[in-house]
Write a structure and sequence with these properties.
The protein has about 250 residues and is α+β, with helices and mostly antiparallel strands. Helices cover about 10% and strands about 25% of the residues. Keywords: Chaperone, Cytoplasm, Nickel.
Length: about 250
């Protein structure tokens, strides 16, 4: 038996020539909703699938075998109930109402624009017919919704241009140009002067400006700036704080 522990959703990134050359395996939903199962592919090989707990297999997915070969998954036709709105006595809204009631019963349901699919259940079929819906039995592939929290249900990639709004509550305005993808460097603010001056003249450098006892103006304790930045990824914040000197802060 060959082992499979990797799945490529819908064969993304694979060349068409590789997909056409790959073996296939036809599976119904009862098997595909499991993360561990055995099957035989179109080449007659016995494969054992061991995926992460909770991961399901969809038609169009590609299994990667331990020897590097690929196996395309085909959703096998199976018995299902197909529910449609009655054009004469109802409206498409009836499908929404039916989906609501079926969802309250935790029924696995495939949602389409003009119909619903569910596994055969004569009690549910009678309920739907009483709601003036058309219910028919068919053999087709079944791909029910995985739920909002299903593994791999939503891939949301944030590229470099993804905009994040950061609110900095400071006593004065700042212009923060954000350069995502680089190191996060902060230049600490100069500490306010405290205690009795030492009487030693200190020559202030032009850039950056260093405040000492002889810088020519007084900075009170209220001049401190507290910048709390909590970002989930690296940013490069260029802070340009222009403070006019030659005035007194009280």
């Amino acid at each position: 038996m060959l082992t499979v522990n990797k799945l490529i959703p819908q064969g993304r990134g694979l060349a068409n020539v590789l997909l056409k050359r790959a073996a296939s395996v036809e599976l119904d939903w009862d098997t595909r909703q499991k993360s561990r199962f055995d099957a035989h592919d179109s080449a007659g090989r016995h494969i054992g699938v061991f995926l992460a707990r909770g991961q399901v297999v969809r038609g169009g997915d590609v299994l990667v075998v331990e020897d590097g070969s690929l196996v395309r998954v085909i959703a096998a036709p199976q018995d299902v109930l197909v529910v449609r709105a009655c054009a004469e006595h109802g409206s498409p809204f009836d499908l929404l109402r039916a989906a609501y009631h079926l969802g309250n019963r935790h029924v696995q349901l495939e949602l389409q624009a003009d119909h619903l699919k569910l596994e055969p259940d004569h009690v549910l079929a009678d309920m739907l017919r009483q709601m003036h819906l058309i219910v028919s039995s068919e053999a087709s592939a079944f791909e029910p919704e995985g739920g909002a929290y299903a593994a791999g249900g939503h891939g949301h990639a944030h590229g470099p241009a993804h905009d994040h709004s950061h609110d900095h509550a400071n006593g004065h305005a700042h212009d923060h140009p954000h350069d995502h993808g680089h190191a996060h460097a902060h230049t600490p603010a100069a500490a306010p002067s405290r205690g009795k001056p030492l009487g030693i003249a200190v020559q202030a450098a032009a850039v950056p400006h260093v405040h000492g006892p002889g810088c020519g103006h007084d900075h009170g304790p209220a001049h401190g700036h507290d910048h709390g930045h909590d970002h989930g990824h690296d940013h490069d914040h260029g802070h340009d704080h222009g403070h006019g000197h030659g005035h007194k802060h009280t």
